[in-house]
Structure formats: C-alpha cells, structure tokens
Amino acid sequence: MNYAFEHDGKGFTPSGVLVAAVDITRHNAEQEENDLARIKAGVPVVVYPIDLPNDAKDLATAAMPFVKNVTLWTGLSVGVIVRQSTFRNPFGFRSTMTAYTWRDHDGHLWHGRGAGNGMSLNSRRSKKSS
C-alpha cells in the first residue's frame, strides 16, 4: 500500500514520509486499481472495516441503520463484513483485537484481524469460496 495525501502543498504517505511531487489524485487512483487487482487475484491486501449508512433496497437489511463495509484507504467499498468477534490481545495489557470475515463483491470470503472499526485490517482470502 502506497497511498498518498496532500498537506500544505506537499505529498505524504500515511506513515508521514514525504513523497515526490506527483498528482495525488492520479497516484491514488493507480494504487486503488492495484489493490482491486490484488483482491481479484486473491493476494493478501490491507483494507479498512467501517460502518456506512445503509441504503438497502430489501426488507431484510432495511432495519439496520448501518452496514459493516470493508473499504480501501480511499473509501471505495470492496466488500461486506459477514462476521466479527472481539478477543483479548495477547500482546497488550487490557487491549483487544477484532477478527473479521468479509465477502468481496465477487462472493469470495476473506479473513483477517485488526484493532477495530476504521483501523487497518490485514486480510487473506479464505480457502472456502462461500
């Protein structure tokens, strides 16, 4: 992942590294295409679980005000969370992690762990297809 953002006329990566003068929008669009290709190929990818307002057309999900989506860094939705569970983090004092299972738009299941809603999630495609 090598997305960039602009601050005070300079381009930076999320880790704070200054990047060369490039068109940030074009650069992020190329990165987004690369991540979508990685998802299609089943290669591990970093995504972000997030609650988005529900614009459901069917009655089964119309009662839920938010849908748990999985997005890329730019906010493009790439899937929907099927299951999540929170557990105690064995590496931190009184901290928790969240395990996610999500389905991409092609129907493939993915799984990964992260710190919670809106935080990065390292995902790998599951061996099960549905």
Q: What would you note in describing this structure?
A:
This protein is of the alpha+beta class and 130 residues long. It has one domain (5-125). The chain is 17% helix and 42% strand. Strands 4-5-6-7-8-9 form a six-stranded antiparallel β-barrel. The two termini are 27 Å apart.
Radius of gyration: 16 Å
Share of β-strand residues: 35-45%
Number of strands: 9
- Counting DSSP H or I runs of 4 or more residues, the number of helices is 2
Mean pLDDT: 79
Structure summary:
The chain has 130 residues and is of the alpha+beta class. The chain has one domain. The protein is built from two helices and nine strands, in the order βββαβαβββββ.
List keywords for this structure.
single chain, 130 residues, alpha+beta, three-stranded antiparallel beta sheet, 42% strand
Task: Outline the secondary-structure elements.
Blueprint lengths: L4 E3 L2 E3 L5 E2 L4 H18 L3 E9 L5 H4 L3 E6 L5 E12 L7 E9 L4 E6 L6 E5 L5
